[in-house]
């Protein structure tokens, strides 16, 4: 049984349908990527999954349950946690306070468990440990991205949604973020990734879906798509 | 940018730092008992102001006690509005509506002009006010719920406009439902608590007739509002330090991000609205009892702006700051009222007082340029594990005396 399943999902902004009848699945433990050009509907799909955006048609299933009508904050408790596009860190809160907000819906049995969760995030992103008393808004772009991912991990997600984690980052930082995403996935967290950086994303993901103007045009294992001439032409800049 | 700026003082890390921060750090680091030791005398000093009547501070044009009573009510309003605007970040321009509902509830239940008057029936006039007080708070809370549930789906400017409309609707209802509210003539002879009757004060200390002998009725209402303010502050302070407070701050900072962190944003926005409203209602009930007379014109929209001015001036999100803001907003115009000279310079105090909206407007503009966070900006303490950690963390960041070893810090270097 897939962990997440989208069945014929349509999302509309007014009369404009940004996403038109998408169906996709994410199996437990997988790293699945959604790639596509600007305006293909990637972020809208993410917002629909996390519950910020209502569906016009279709249904979303998580762990065998229909969550189409579930509120966004309840989906977090169910295990779907998003690191939003543009990072969405709380600018006036310190790094530590931001991370604490990530665990808002989670009950810790003891302080040790809390420290352990925090320790894991700091192990993945030592930079956050160095800056934990700094206000979120004063971090660099890459650090904010780390914070957004770290904050999402504090909620102990069963499915981690990452929306364009490489956006606006320096090449070296992109490498590091992707390596960390692979690490998170290898440690057992299912990841659904939205990316424009097709090269990096495809080479690291188990499977991928390619979105074009709100519809799934191609899907398959990441490595296969990487070799697909049509994909190469459209997304990898190879003639 | 990505260098190794670890451990050295970084005042720029937070939006603002400096003397205020140092005072705050010193205060936060004090044990609770010591804080009370400082706090109670300070509170007593404020309460004693109208008895001490300090020479320059005492108003000349109007009764000092009355001014302080008004300050007490505005302080409550500022604290209530601060929950909505400062904590949850919801711009409410119709807060005066709740103030009016609180005042009119008491008036309708206890004024002989009202069709719903209970005091000529089974309720004694001595206890009518006290009886109406919790009802006023409850009704304003419900009105907050009624206003909030449809409108809190709106954001930013849209919410501001709808709440502005709400404030006007309440006033217009009071003005036009003449059969019930007396329309523009208002409702008079509202009940007040009759306590402390004596030869000199035949109607008790809270009676508007108690003006001949100090302390006057204004002073007594000031004391009453101070007590209610203290209770409110303790309750609100506890809320702010709890998960509710964290939810409010996260909503203020980024509502979408808060929602996907698992914060039920709508519910907490509604809570902020309801709590803010009920405090406004409490203040309104005090007002009705003190003045013993309500008319719609006392609840103009400009009052909402004045309340908001107190909050913004004082520092959104800082409870004590907004109380200082309320003091400025109430006291300054009254300070100038009737004054003909200041420090030997002849001034026309009455004119200055009359132009108070102009001066507050200018003050706000200047403030927005030089100190947008307000005179006494807020500092959040949100960590799950207590203020000791907060102090340790701030010390380690180099804000105060260096701590020997931040052993209590969370996570550590893992």
UniProtKB/TrEMBL annotation, chain A:
The keyword Mitochondrion does not apply. CDD domains: ABC_TM1139_LivF_branched (cd03224). It comes from Cellulomonas alba. Residues 4-238 form the ABC transporter domain. Gene3D superfamilies: P-loop containing nucleotide triphosphate hydrolases. Keywords: Amino-acid transport, ATP-binding, Nucleotide-binding, Transport. InterPro entries: AAA+_ATPase (IPR003593), ABC_branched_ATPase_LivF/BraG (IPR030660), ABC_transporter-like_ATP-bd (IPR003439), ABC_transporter-like_CS (IPR017871), BCAA_Transport_ATP-bd_LivF (IPR052156), P-loop_NTPase (IPR027417). The keyword Nucleotide-binding applies. PANTHER family: HIGH-AFFINITY BRANCHED-CHAIN AMINO ACID TRANSPORT ATP-BINDING PROTEIN LIVF. Belongs to the ABC transporter superfamily. One of its GO terms (molecular function) is ATP binding. This is ABC transporter ATP-binding protein. PROSITE patterns: ABC_TRANSPORTER_1 (PS00211), ABC_TRANSPORTER_2 (PS50893). It comes from the Bacteria.
UniProtKB/TrEMBL annotation, chain B:
Its main location: membrane. Keywords: Cell membrane, Membrane, Transmembrane, Transmembrane helix. It is a multi-pass membrane protein. The chain crosses the membrane at residues 34-52, 64-85, 90-107, 127-146, 158-174, 220-239, 270-288, 294-313, 320-337, 357-378. It is found in: Cell membrane. Pfam families: BPD_transp_2. It comes from the Bacteria. PANTHER family: HIGH-AFFINITY BRANCHED-CHAIN AMINO ACID TRANSPORT PROTEIN BRAE, HIGH-AFFINITY BRANCHED-CHAIN AMINO ACID TRANSPORT SYSTEM PERMEASE. This is Branched-chain amino acid ABC transporter permease. It comes from Cellulomonas alba.
